[in-house]
Design brief:
The chain has about 525 residues and is mostly helical. The chain has 2 domains: about 375 residues, no CATH class; about 130 residues. About 60% of the residues lie in helices and about 5% in strands. The strands form 2 sheets. It has a 5-stranded mixed beta sheet with strand order 4-3-5-7-6. Strands 1-2 form a two-stranded antiparallel sheet. Helix 1 packs antiparallel against helix 4 and helix 10 crosses helix 15. The longest helix is centred in the last third of the chain and has 26 residues.
Length: about 525
Protein backbone atom coordinates (compact mmCIF):
# COMPACT_ATOMS: atom_id res chain seq x y z
CA UNK A 1 0.00 0.00 0.00
CA UNK A 2 1.38 3.41 -0.98
CA UNK A 3 2.38 5.49 2.04
CA UNK A 4 0.32 8.57 1.12
CA UNK A 5 -2.78 6.47 0.44
CA UNK A 6 -2.34 4.66 3.76
CA UNK A 7 -2.08 7.94 5.68
CA UNK A 8 -5.15 9.30 3.91
CA UNK A 9 -7.10 6.12 4.68
CA UNK A 10 -6.06 6.30 8.33
CA UNK A 11 -7.10 9.95 8.55
CA UNK A 12 -10.53 9.16 7.13
CA UNK A 13 -10.93 6.22 9.52
CA UNK A 14 -10.03 8.41 12.50
CA UNK A 15 -12.41 11.16 11.39
CA UNK A 16 -15.22 8.62 11.08
CA UNK A 17 -14.39 7.04 14.45
CA UNK A 18 -14.19 10.44 16.13
CA UNK A 19 -17.47 11.63 14.66
CA UNK A 20 -19.29 8.52 15.86
CA UNK A 21 -17.76 8.64 19.34
CA UNK A 22 -18.01 12.33 20.20
CA UNK A 23 -21.39 13.30 18.72
CA UNK A 24 -24.22 13.88 21.24
CA UNK A 25 -22.35 12.31 24.14
CA UNK A 26 -24.90 13.71 26.57
CA UNK A 27 -28.06 12.37 24.92
CA UNK A 28 -28.29 9.06 26.83
CA UNK A 29 -29.20 9.04 30.54
CA UNK A 30 -26.51 7.91 32.92
CA UNK A 31 -26.41 4.15 33.48
CA UNK A 32 -26.29 2.95 37.08
CA UNK A 33 -22.62 1.98 36.71
CA UNK A 34 -21.73 5.34 35.19
CA UNK A 35 -23.37 7.28 37.99
CA UNK A 36 -21.72 5.06 40.59
CA UNK A 37 -18.33 5.83 39.07
CA UNK A 38 -18.99 9.57 39.20
CA UNK A 39 -19.86 9.40 42.90
CA UNK A 40 -16.71 7.39 43.66
CA UNK A 41 -14.70 9.97 41.73
CA UNK A 42 -16.32 12.74 43.78
CA UNK A 43 -14.64 11.47 46.95
CA UNK A 44 -11.28 11.77 45.21
CA UNK A 45 -12.03 15.18 43.74
CA UNK A 46 -13.27 16.79 46.92
CA UNK A 47 -10.38 15.64 49.09
CA UNK A 48 -12.13 12.89 51.04
CA UNK A 49 -9.63 10.40 49.63
CA UNK A 50 -10.21 7.47 47.33
CA UNK A 51 -10.40 4.05 48.97
CA UNK A 52 -10.58 0.94 46.85
CA UNK A 53 -13.56 -1.30 47.60
CA UNK A 54 -13.51 -4.93 46.49
CA UNK A 55 -17.29 -5.29 46.16
CA UNK A 56 -17.79 -4.85 42.42
CA UNK A 57 -16.42 -1.34 41.86
CA UNK A 58 -13.41 -2.37 39.78
CA UNK A 59 -9.98 -0.81 39.57
CA UNK A 60 -8.87 2.60 40.85
CA UNK A 61 -7.13 3.78 37.68
CA UNK A 62 -10.33 5.10 36.10
CA UNK A 63 -10.84 7.60 38.91
CA UNK A 64 -7.27 8.91 38.86
CA UNK A 65 -7.45 9.20 35.09
CA UNK A 66 -10.74 11.08 35.46
CA UNK A 67 -9.06 13.53 37.80
CA UNK A 68 -6.51 14.40 35.12
CA UNK A 69 -9.20 14.86 32.44
CA UNK A 70 -11.36 16.81 34.88
CA UNK A 71 -8.67 19.36 35.56
CA UNK A 72 -7.80 19.59 31.85
CA UNK A 73 -11.44 20.46 31.07
CA UNK A 74 -11.43 23.22 33.67
CA UNK A 75 -14.66 22.13 35.37
CA UNK A 76 -15.26 24.21 38.50
CA UNK A 77 -16.90 21.62 40.75
CA UNK A 78 -18.55 18.23 40.76
CA UNK A 79 -21.98 19.84 40.73
CA UNK A 80 -21.08 21.70 37.54
CA UNK A 81 -19.83 18.58 35.77
CA UNK A 82 -21.95 17.06 33.02
CA UNK A 83 -22.30 13.73 31.29
CA UNK A 84 -19.83 14.91 28.67
CA UNK A 85 -17.25 15.66 31.40
CA UNK A 86 -16.97 11.92 32.05
CA UNK A 87 -17.92 10.31 28.75
CA UNK A 88 -15.25 12.20 26.84
CA UNK A 89 -12.70 9.97 28.60
CA UNK A 90 -13.80 6.62 27.13
CA UNK A 91 -14.45 8.40 23.82
CA UNK A 92 -10.82 9.54 23.69
CA UNK A 93 -9.56 6.06 24.52
CA UNK A 94 -11.97 4.48 22.06
CA UNK A 95 -10.44 6.66 19.36
CA UNK A 96 -6.94 5.89 20.64
CA UNK A 97 -7.69 2.16 20.36
CA UNK A 98 -8.54 2.60 16.68
CA UNK A 99 -5.23 4.39 16.16
CA UNK A 100 -3.21 1.89 18.19
CA UNK A 101 -4.38 -0.99 16.00
CA UNK A 102 -2.34 0.49 13.16
CA UNK A 103 0.80 -0.03 15.25
CA UNK A 104 0.41 -3.80 14.69
CA UNK A 105 1.29 -3.44 10.99
CA UNK A 106 4.73 -4.92 11.66
CA UNK A 107 3.13 -8.21 12.71
CA UNK A 108 0.01 -8.39 10.55
CA UNK A 109 0.90 -6.12 7.64
CA UNK A 110 -0.24 -2.55 6.86
CA UNK A 111 -3.38 -3.57 4.97
CA UNK A 112 -4.59 -5.86 7.76
CA UNK A 113 -3.83 -3.21 10.38
CA UNK A 114 -5.83 -0.57 8.51
CA UNK A 115 -8.65 -3.06 8.01
CA UNK A 116 -8.69 -3.77 11.75
CA UNK A 117 -8.73 -0.03 12.51
CA UNK A 118 -11.72 0.47 10.20
CA UNK A 119 -13.61 -2.44 11.74
CA UNK A 120 -12.94 -1.13 15.24
CA UNK A 121 -14.07 2.36 14.21
CA UNK A 122 -17.51 1.09 13.17
CA UNK A 123 -17.91 -1.95 15.44
CA UNK A 124 -21.23 -1.35 17.22
CA UNK A 125 -20.07 -2.79 20.55
CA UNK A 126 -16.78 -0.85 20.49
CA UNK A 127 -18.64 2.32 19.54
CA UNK A 128 -21.43 1.95 22.11
CA UNK A 129 -19.11 1.47 25.07
CA UNK A 130 -16.72 4.17 23.86
CA UNK A 131 -19.54 6.49 24.92
CA UNK A 132 -19.98 4.88 28.36
CA UNK A 133 -18.22 6.08 31.51
CA UNK A 134 -17.20 2.64 32.73
CA UNK A 135 -13.85 0.87 32.90
CA UNK A 136 -14.14 -1.42 29.89
CA UNK A 137 -13.11 0.77 26.94
CA UNK A 138 -9.98 1.99 28.71
CA UNK A 139 -9.30 -1.52 29.99
CA UNK A 140 -9.45 -2.79 26.41
CA UNK A 141 -6.96 -0.09 25.41
CA UNK A 142 -4.55 -1.38 28.08
CA UNK A 143 -4.99 -4.94 26.73
CA UNK A 144 -4.01 -3.71 23.28
CA UNK A 145 -1.08 -1.83 24.77
CA UNK A 146 0.06 -5.01 26.52
CA UNK A 147 -0.23 -7.05 23.32
CA UNK A 148 1.80 -4.44 21.46
CA UNK A 149 4.49 -4.27 24.16
CA UNK A 150 4.68 -8.08 24.28
CA UNK A 151 4.96 -8.37 20.51
CA UNK A 152 7.67 -5.71 20.45
CA UNK A 153 9.59 -7.44 23.24
CA UNK A 154 9.53 -10.90 21.63
CA UNK A 155 10.45 -9.31 18.33
CA UNK A 156 13.56 -7.74 19.87
CA UNK A 157 14.05 -8.36 23.59
CA UNK A 158 15.24 -5.41 25.62
CA UNK A 159 15.02 -4.07 29.17
CA UNK A 160 12.82 -1.07 28.34
CA UNK A 161 10.47 -3.20 26.28
CA UNK A 162 10.18 -5.59 29.21
CA UNK A 163 9.32 -2.65 31.47
CA UNK A 164 6.69 -1.48 28.96
CA UNK A 165 5.20 -4.98 28.99
CA UNK A 166 5.11 -4.97 32.79
CA UNK A 167 3.45 -1.55 32.84
CA UNK A 168 0.79 -2.79 30.41
CA UNK A 169 0.10 -5.83 32.59
CA UNK A 170 -0.09 -3.64 35.68
CA UNK A 171 -2.44 -1.16 34.02
CA UNK A 172 -4.76 -3.96 32.95
CA UNK A 173 -5.16 -4.88 36.61
CA UNK A 174 -5.38 -1.25 37.70
CA UNK A 175 -8.44 -0.76 35.51
CA UNK A 176 -10.20 -4.07 36.05
CA UNK A 177 -9.36 -6.98 38.35
CA UNK A 178 -11.05 -9.50 36.06
CA UNK A 179 -7.99 -9.17 33.83
CA UNK A 180 -6.91 -12.56 35.20
CA UNK A 181 -9.06 -14.15 32.48
CA UNK A 182 -7.15 -12.23 29.82
CA UNK A 183 -3.82 -13.07 31.49
CA UNK A 184 -4.69 -16.76 31.51
CA UNK A 185 -5.69 -16.89 27.83
CA UNK A 186 -2.65 -14.81 26.90
CA UNK A 187 -0.42 -17.29 28.73
CA UNK A 188 -2.07 -20.22 26.94
CA UNK A 189 -1.73 -18.44 23.62
CA UNK A 190 1.91 -17.67 24.26
CA UNK A 191 2.64 -21.28 25.19
CA UNK A 192 0.86 -22.63 22.13
CA UNK A 193 2.60 -20.19 19.81
CA UNK A 194 5.92 -21.10 21.40
CA UNK A 195 5.42 -24.84 20.95
CA UNK A 196 4.27 -24.45 17.34
CA UNK A 197 7.32 -22.39 16.37
CA UNK A 198 10.60 -23.94 15.33
CA UNK A 199 13.61 -23.64 17.64
CA UNK A 200 15.43 -21.30 15.31
CA UNK A 201 12.44 -18.91 15.20
CA UNK A 202 11.58 -18.85 18.87
CA UNK A 203 12.18 -15.54 20.62
CA UNK A 204 14.62 -15.45 23.51
CA UNK A 205 14.28 -13.60 26.78
CA UNK A 206 16.43 -12.91 29.78
CA UNK A 207 15.42 -13.60 33.34
CA UNK A 208 16.51 -10.06 34.20
CA UNK A 209 13.90 -8.79 31.76
CA UNK A 210 11.25 -10.98 33.39
CA UNK A 211 12.18 -9.45 36.73
CA UNK A 212 11.98 -5.93 35.30
CA UNK A 213 8.50 -6.62 33.91
CA UNK A 214 7.30 -8.03 37.24
CA UNK A 215 8.68 -5.04 39.16
CA UNK A 216 6.99 -2.61 36.76
CA UNK A 217 3.66 -4.41 37.12
CA UNK A 218 3.98 -4.46 40.94
CA UNK A 219 4.74 -0.74 41.06
CA UNK A 220 1.53 0.01 39.16
CA UNK A 221 -0.46 -2.33 41.39
CA UNK A 222 0.92 -0.85 44.61
CA UNK A 223 0.53 2.77 43.47
CA UNK A 224 -3.11 2.52 42.43
CA UNK A 225 -4.52 0.06 44.95
CA UNK A 226 -2.80 1.79 47.87
CA UNK A 227 -4.42 5.07 46.77
CA UNK A 228 -1.03 6.50 45.89
CA UNK A 229 0.67 5.02 48.96
CA UNK A 230 -1.92 6.28 51.48
CA UNK A 231 -4.19 3.25 52.02
CA UNK A 232 -2.31 -0.04 52.24
CA UNK A 233 -5.43 -2.05 53.03
CA UNK A 234 -6.36 -1.55 49.38
CA UNK A 235 -3.67 -4.05 48.37
CA UNK A 236 -5.24 -6.71 50.55
CA UNK A 237 -8.73 -5.81 49.31
CA UNK A 238 -7.62 -6.15 45.69
CA UNK A 239 -6.93 -9.81 46.42
CA UNK A 240 -10.11 -10.29 48.45
CA UNK A 241 -12.08 -9.07 45.44
CA UNK A 242 -11.62 -12.37 43.65
CA UNK A 243 -13.59 -14.23 46.30
CA UNK A 244 -16.47 -11.77 45.94
CA UNK A 245 -16.42 -12.01 42.16
CA UNK A 246 -16.45 -15.79 42.41
CA UNK A 247 -19.61 -15.68 44.52
CA UNK A 248 -21.33 -13.16 42.27
CA UNK A 249 -20.47 -15.05 39.10
CA UNK A 250 -22.73 -17.80 40.38
CA UNK A 251 -25.69 -15.59 41.28
CA UNK A 252 -25.79 -12.33 39.33
CA UNK A 253 -26.56 -11.63 35.65
CA UNK A 254 -26.98 -15.30 34.81
CA UNK A 255 -27.36 -16.13 31.10
CA UNK A 256 -26.99 -19.27 28.91
CA UNK A 257 -23.55 -20.09 27.47
CA UNK A 258 -24.44 -18.81 23.99
CA UNK A 259 -25.52 -15.32 25.12
CA UNK A 260 -22.38 -13.56 23.89
CA UNK A 261 -22.81 -15.16 20.47
CA UNK A 262 -26.37 -13.86 20.36
CA UNK A 263 -25.46 -10.35 21.48
CA UNK A 264 -22.63 -10.07 18.97
CA UNK A 265 -23.69 -12.03 15.92
CA UNK A 266 -27.47 -12.41 15.69
CA UNK A 267 -29.79 -10.23 17.73
CA UNK A 268 -33.17 -9.71 16.14
CA UNK A 269 -35.94 -7.59 17.62
CA UNK A 270 -39.01 -7.67 15.34
CA UNK A 271 -40.61 -5.58 13.97
CA UNK A 272 -37.41 -3.56 13.59
CA UNK A 273 -36.07 -3.95 10.03
CA UNK A 274 -32.47 -4.50 11.16
CA UNK A 275 -30.50 -7.45 12.49
CA UNK A 276 -28.03 -6.36 15.15
CA UNK A 277 -25.00 -8.34 14.07
CA UNK A 278 -21.24 -8.08 13.85
CA UNK A 279 -21.01 -11.32 11.89
CA UNK A 280 -18.71 -9.65 9.35
CA UNK A 281 -16.05 -9.30 12.05
CA UNK A 282 -16.68 -12.81 13.35
CA UNK A 283 -16.48 -14.39 9.89
CA UNK A 284 -13.33 -12.54 8.90
CA UNK A 285 -11.76 -13.38 12.27
CA UNK A 286 -12.46 -17.06 11.69
CA UNK A 287 -10.80 -16.86 8.26
CA UNK A 288 -7.74 -15.14 9.75
CA UNK A 289 -7.44 -17.69 12.56
CA UNK A 290 -7.79 -20.71 10.25
CA UNK A 291 -5.27 -19.27 7.78
CA UNK A 292 -2.75 -18.82 10.60
CA UNK A 293 -3.37 -22.34 11.86
CA UNK A 294 -2.76 -23.77 8.37
CA UNK A 295 0.12 -21.34 7.66
CA UNK A 296 -1.75 -19.94 4.68
CA UNK A 297 -1.21 -16.27 5.48
CA UNK A 298 0.70 -13.77 3.29
CA UNK A 299 4.44 -13.68 3.93
CA UNK A 300 4.40 -10.33 5.71
CA UNK A 301 2.06 -11.66 8.42
CA UNK A 302 3.70 -13.23 11.47
CA UNK A 303 1.94 -16.58 11.87
CA UNK A 304 3.04 -17.06 15.49
CA UNK A 305 1.58 -13.72 16.55
CA UNK A 306 -1.72 -14.37 14.79
CA UNK A 307 -1.99 -17.80 16.41
CA UNK A 308 -1.38 -16.20 19.78
CA UNK A 309 -4.15 -13.65 19.19
CA UNK A 310 -6.51 -16.39 17.99
CA UNK A 311 -5.98 -18.50 21.13
CA UNK A 312 -6.34 -15.45 23.36
CA UNK A 313 -9.56 -14.36 21.62
CA UNK A 314 -11.35 -17.68 21.23
CA UNK A 315 -10.09 -18.85 24.61
CA UNK A 316 -11.52 -15.72 26.27
CA UNK A 317 -14.84 -16.24 24.49
CA UNK A 318 -14.99 -19.83 25.76
CA UNK A 319 -14.17 -18.87 29.36
CA UNK A 320 -16.62 -15.99 29.44
CA UNK A 321 -19.27 -18.26 27.92
CA UNK A 322 -18.71 -20.93 30.58
CA UNK A 323 -19.12 -18.38 33.38
CA UNK A 324 -22.81 -17.86 34.10
CA UNK A 325 -22.31 -14.16 34.91
CA UNK A 326 -22.62 -12.27 31.63
CA UNK A 327 -22.94 -8.62 30.65
CA UNK A 328 -22.45 -7.38 27.08
CA UNK A 329 -19.50 -5.12 27.90
CA UNK A 330 -17.53 -8.19 29.02
CA UNK A 331 -17.34 -9.16 25.34
CA UNK A 332 -15.03 -6.23 24.56
CA UNK A 333 -11.72 -7.96 25.48
CA UNK A 334 -12.21 -10.87 23.08
CA UNK A 335 -13.95 -8.71 20.47
CA UNK A 336 -10.73 -6.70 20.29
CA UNK A 337 -8.88 -9.90 19.37
CA UNK A 338 -11.52 -10.77 16.78
CA UNK A 339 -11.00 -7.36 15.18
CA UNK A 340 -7.25 -7.98 14.87
CA UNK A 341 -7.93 -11.40 13.36
CA UNK A 342 -10.55 -9.92 11.03
CA UNK A 343 -7.92 -7.55 9.64
CA UNK A 344 -5.78 -10.60 8.93
CA UNK A 345 -8.81 -12.27 7.33
CA UNK A 346 -9.18 -9.37 4.90
CA UNK A 347 -5.50 -9.61 3.95
CA UNK A 348 -5.79 -13.39 3.45
CA UNK A 349 -8.79 -13.04 1.15
CA UNK A 350 -7.13 -10.35 -0.92
CA UNK A 351 -3.98 -12.46 -1.21
CA UNK A 352 -5.86 -15.64 -2.13
CA UNK A 353 -8.39 -14.22 -4.55
CA UNK A 354 -6.10 -12.93 -7.28
CA UNK A 355 -8.36 -13.07 -10.30
CA UNK A 356 -9.80 -9.64 -11.14
CA UNK A 357 -13.39 -10.92 -11.13
CA UNK A 358 -12.93 -12.54 -7.72
CA UNK A 359 -11.35 -9.40 -6.29
CA UNK A 360 -14.21 -7.29 -7.60
CA UNK A 361 -16.69 -9.69 -6.00
CA UNK A 362 -14.70 -9.57 -2.77
CA UNK A 363 -14.65 -5.78 -2.83
CA UNK A 364 -18.41 -5.60 -3.32
CA UNK A 365 -19.04 -8.15 -0.57
CA UNK A 366 -16.77 -6.29 1.88
CA UNK A 367 -18.36 -2.95 0.95
CA UNK A 368 -21.84 -4.37 1.61
CA UNK A 369 -20.72 -5.88 4.92
CA UNK A 370 -19.05 -2.67 6.05
CA UNK A 371 -22.11 -0.64 5.09
CA UNK A 372 -24.35 -2.90 7.14
CA UNK A 373 -21.92 -2.76 10.08
CA UNK A 374 -21.89 1.05 9.90
CA UNK A 375 -25.69 1.08 9.72
CA UNK A 376 -25.92 -1.07 12.85
CA UNK A 377 -23.38 1.18 14.58
CA UNK A 378 -25.47 4.24 13.78
CA UNK A 379 -28.61 2.54 15.05
CA UNK A 380 -26.73 1.65 18.24
CA UNK A 381 -26.11 5.28 19.18
CA UNK A 382 -29.33 6.81 17.82
CA UNK A 383 -31.16 8.69 20.61
CA UNK A 384 -34.10 6.40 19.97
CA UNK A 385 -32.11 3.24 20.71
CA UNK A 386 -29.36 4.37 23.11
CA UNK A 387 -31.50 3.30 26.05
CA UNK A 388 -33.89 0.91 24.29
CA UNK A 389 -33.58 -2.79 25.32
CA UNK A 390 -34.08 -3.76 21.68
CA UNK A 391 -30.46 -2.68 21.31
CA UNK A 392 -28.37 -5.72 22.41
CA UNK A 393 -25.80 -3.53 24.17
CA UNK A 394 -28.39 -1.74 26.29
CA UNK A 395 -28.31 -3.58 29.60
CA UNK A 396 -30.37 -2.46 32.56
CA UNK A 397 -30.14 1.04 31.14
CA UNK A 398 -31.76 4.05 32.77
CA UNK A 399 -34.69 5.27 30.65
CA UNK A 400 -35.24 8.80 29.39
CA UNK A 401 -37.93 9.41 32.01
CA UNK A 402 -35.15 10.07 34.52
CA UNK A 403 -34.51 13.37 32.72
CA UNK A 404 -38.15 14.38 33.23
CA UNK A 405 -37.95 13.38 36.89
CA UNK A 406 -34.84 15.49 37.46
CA UNK A 407 -36.34 18.42 35.54
CA UNK A 408 -39.51 18.22 37.67
CA UNK A 409 -37.53 18.40 40.91
CA UNK A 410 -35.41 21.30 39.69
CA UNK A 411 -38.61 23.17 38.74
CA UNK A 412 -40.04 22.48 42.17
CA UNK A 413 -36.85 23.75 43.78
CA UNK A 414 -37.25 26.97 41.82
CA UNK A 415 -40.55 27.73 43.61
CA UNK A 416 -39.61 26.28 47.01
CA UNK A 417 -38.63 28.60 49.86
CA UNK A 418 -35.60 26.37 50.41
CA UNK A 419 -34.49 26.11 46.79
CA UNK A 420 -32.18 23.17 46.25
CA UNK A 421 -32.05 22.74 50.03
CA UNK A 422 -35.65 21.49 50.11
CA UNK A 423 -35.85 18.11 51.92
CA UNK A 424 -36.11 15.06 49.65
CA UNK A 425 -36.36 11.45 50.83
CA UNK A 426 -35.68 8.39 48.67
CA UNK A 427 -37.43 5.26 49.92
CA UNK A 428 -36.10 2.40 47.80
CA UNK A 429 -33.78 -0.55 48.18
CA UNK A 430 -30.06 -0.23 47.50
CA UNK A 431 -30.39 -1.09 43.80
CA UNK A 432 -33.37 0.98 42.77
CA UNK A 433 -32.29 4.54 43.38
CA UNK A 434 -29.31 4.78 41.02
CA UNK A 435 -28.60 7.00 39.13
CA UNK A 436 -30.51 9.48 41.32
CA UNK A 437 -27.40 10.53 43.31
CA UNK A 438 -25.93 11.78 40.03
CA UNK A 439 -29.08 13.32 38.58
CA UNK A 440 -29.97 15.06 41.88
CA UNK A 441 -26.44 16.07 42.83
CA UNK A 442 -27.42 19.74 43.19
CA UNK A 443 -29.86 19.01 46.01
CA UNK A 444 -28.30 19.65 49.41
CA UNK A 445 -30.79 17.81 51.67
CA UNK A 446 -31.52 14.51 50.03
CA UNK A 447 -31.55 11.30 52.05
CA UNK A 448 -31.45 7.69 50.95
CA UNK A 449 -33.21 5.30 53.33
CA UNK A 450 -32.55 1.95 51.69
CA UNK A 451 -31.29 0.33 54.90
CA UNK A 452 -34.57 1.07 56.71
CA UNK A 453 -36.84 0.40 53.73
CA UNK A 454 -35.32 -2.81 52.40
CA UNK A 455 -36.82 -5.10 55.09
CA UNK A 456 -40.34 -3.91 54.22
CA UNK A 457 -39.67 -4.30 50.50
CA UNK A 458 -38.33 -7.81 50.99
CA UNK A 459 -41.60 -8.80 52.61
CA UNK A 460 -43.61 -7.16 49.83
CA UNK A 461 -41.57 -8.72 47.04
CA UNK A 462 -41.90 -12.17 48.59
CA UNK A 463 -45.68 -11.79 48.82
CA UNK A 464 -45.48 -12.35 52.56
CA UNK A 465 -48.50 -10.74 54.26
CA UNK A 466 -47.39 -7.90 56.49
CA UNK A 467 -49.70 -6.05 58.87
CA UNK A 468 -50.52 -2.65 57.39
CA UNK A 469 -50.30 -1.07 60.82
CA UNK A 470 -46.78 -2.42 61.28
CA UNK A 471 -45.63 -1.08 57.91
CA UNK A 472 -47.16 2.33 58.60
CA UNK A 473 -45.49 2.41 62.01
CA UNK A 474 -42.13 1.67 60.41
CA UNK A 475 -42.67 4.30 57.72
CA UNK A 476 -43.60 6.89 60.36
CA UNK A 477 -40.12 6.45 61.80
CA UNK A 478 -38.62 7.34 58.44
CA UNK A 479 -40.85 9.92 56.75
CA UNK A 480 -40.20 13.53 57.72
CA UNK A 481 -43.13 15.85 58.27
CA UNK A 482 -41.47 18.61 56.26
CA UNK A 483 -40.35 16.45 53.30
CA UNK A 484 -40.98 18.34 50.07
CA UNK A 485 -40.71 15.23 47.91
CA UNK A 486 -40.66 11.51 48.63
CA UNK A 487 -39.39 9.17 45.93
CA UNK A 488 -40.59 5.65 46.69
CA UNK A 489 -41.05 2.23 45.17
CA UNK A 490 -44.60 1.30 44.13
CA UNK A 491 -44.55 -1.65 46.58
CA UNK A 492 -44.79 0.88 49.42
CA UNK A 493 -47.82 2.64 47.90
CA UNK A 494 -50.62 1.08 50.04
CA UNK A 495 -49.08 2.10 53.36
CA UNK A 496 -47.42 5.28 52.16
CA UNK A 497 -50.66 6.63 50.66
CA UNK A 498 -52.46 6.02 53.97
CA UNK A 499 -49.69 7.76 55.86
CA UNK A 500 -49.46 10.79 53.56
CA UNK A 501 -53.19 11.17 52.90
CA UNK A 502 -54.16 14.11 50.70
CA UNK A 503 -51.14 16.19 51.70
CA UNK A 504 -49.20 14.91 48.68
CA UNK A 505 -49.92 14.31 45.02
CA UNK A 506 -48.25 11.39 43.23
CA UNK A 507 -46.59 10.97 39.83
CA UNK A 508 -45.06 7.83 38.35
CA UNK A 509 -41.71 7.90 36.56
CA UNK A 510 -39.66 5.17 34.93
CA UNK A 511 -36.17 4.33 36.12
CA UNK A 512 -35.21 1.27 34.10
CA UNK A 513 -37.27 -1.14 31.99
CA UNK A 514 -39.77 -2.68 34.39
CA UNK A 515 -38.67 -0.46 37.30
CA UNK A 516 -40.81 2.54 38.24
CA UNK A 517 -40.82 5.07 41.04
CA UNK A 518 -43.62 7.01 42.68
CA UNK A 519 -42.86 10.71 43.15
CA UNK A 520 -44.88 12.09 46.09
CA UNK A 521 -44.89 15.91 45.96
CA UNK A 522 -46.18 17.99 48.86
CA UNK A 523 -49.44 19.56 47.66
CA UNK A 524 -48.70 23.17 48.65
CA UNK A 525 -45.43 23.00 46.72
CA UNK A 526 -47.21 21.42 43.76
CA UNK A 527 -49.86 24.17 43.75
CA UNK A 528 -47.16 26.81 43.82
CA UNK A 529 -45.47 25.14 40.86
CA UNK A 530 -48.75 25.02 38.92
CA UNK A 531 -49.24 28.75 39.51
CA UNK A 532 -46.08 29.40 37.50
CA UNK A 533 -47.63 27.54 34.56
CA UNK A 534 -50.78 29.64 34.40
Amino acid sequence: MKTHAAYLALLLILLLAGHLRFTHLDSRPMHTDESTNTLIFRTLLEGDGYRYRPDDYHGPALHYLTLAFYKAQGTESFIDSTRITYRVIPAVFGLATVLLLVAFRRWIGPGAALGAALLCAISPICLFYSRYYIHETIYVFTILLTLLAGAAYFDRPGAWRAVALGLGIGLMHAFKETCIIAWFTMAVGLGAAWLSTGNNQRPHWRWAHVGAAIVAALVVWIAFYSSMFTHWQGLVDSIKAYGMYSDRSQNWHQHPWWKYLQWLFWYRTPPLPIVWTEALIGGLALIGAIAALLKKTPDRIRVGFVRFVAIYSFGSLILFSIIGYKTPWNALPFMLGFILLAGVGIAVLIDRLRRPALRIALGLALAAGLWHLLSVAQYTIMPRFEYDPRNPYVYSQTVKDIDRLARRLHNLAAVSDHGHAMPIQVLTDAFNYWPLPWELRRFERIGYYHAQVTPLLNLANKDVPRPSSHAITELKKIVRNDAAVLIAEPALAPELNKLLGDRYICETRGLRPGVHLHIHIRKDLWDRYLDTKR
